[in-house]
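Same chain as my last thread, 174 residues:
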Amino acid sequence: MSDTSPAHPEPVVLDIWCELQCTDCRSALDDVRALRARYGDRLEIRLRHFPLEKHKHSFAAAQAAEEAVEQGQGWPYIEAVLARAEELDRRGEAVLVDVARELGLDAEEFDVALIDGRHTLIVDADQAEGKAIGVTGTPTYVIGGERLDGGKSQEGLRERIEEITDRLLAEPRA
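reply #2:
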């Protein structure tokens, strides 16, 4: 009896340590979109939070992103906030609520979430895990156990991620 199941039923996971006030992370969105288009559901792209101290609104932005995930609009929200990184720097947390409202999300719930800190543990856990594996800046990618630092240059990173993804997808899984 031959096994006709696909060689790789589980998607390959790409973790991206990101910070929503980081313009390098905004630049990385083009690569994320291209990877999504190429691999579809064979590549699971997970945003991991790594707020940097130099950006005073990044921790609140990470919490707001988690609220957006809870309301079913994680990636659209993340992309919209990154597009307004400079405005977030100038105007602060009001931008986070404005973006939620513009996307048709429950903006009042965003306000409450930022006050009650309900998503703090997720953000803290991501940041701690990032530090534990050597993340120092954003964006940093982790795929197949390999860490790729995009904070200095993103040159060639998408190609490297594609090489690793193709290799992992070709490997038979138990």
